Amino acid sequence: MIMISKGNSFGGKSFANQVLTEIRPNLIKRFGKDSEIMQDFDNEEKFFGFIALQDLSKDDFNFVAEQIINADLDEKPKIALIEKIKFDPRFS
Q: In the chain, what is the straight-line distance between the N-terminal and C-terminal CA atoms, in Å?
């Protein structure tokens, strides 16, 4: 599941895994492999099956959103996820 904000989430465990696998290289470039943000992403997805975006700053949220928009993901769930992301007030 992708937890965009409180009460706004999308998808399941396998979709969260697919998203993180696809965008992880660019996240590492931005945040660093051993950064707290990357550790949170990796641990949340591995142990709990979700990726949490609700605590990201506006800049970091928009970076992650851009990576999702440009990711090679299954088109139908990707479009639905992007629509939910666009409702977040941090999105620009």
A: 22
Q: Which of 10, 38, 15, 36 is nearest to 25 (CA)?
A: 38
Question: What mean pLDDT is predicted for residues 2-25?
Answer: 93
Q: How far apart are CA 42 and CA 46, in angstroms?
A: 6
Q: How far apart are CA 33 and CA 61, in angstroms?
A: 18
How many Cβ atoms are within 10 Å of 90's Cβ, its own excluded? 17
The more confidently predicted of residues 45 and 68 is 68
Q: What is the pTM of this model?
A: 0.91
Tokens representing 4 are 């965009």
Alpha carbon distance 24, 41 (integer Å): 9
Segment 28-42 mean pLDDT: 93
pLDDT beyond 90 at 90: yes
Task: Give, as one character, the DSSP assignment of residue 6.
Answer: T
Rounded Cα–Cα distance for residues 49 and 16 (Å) = 7
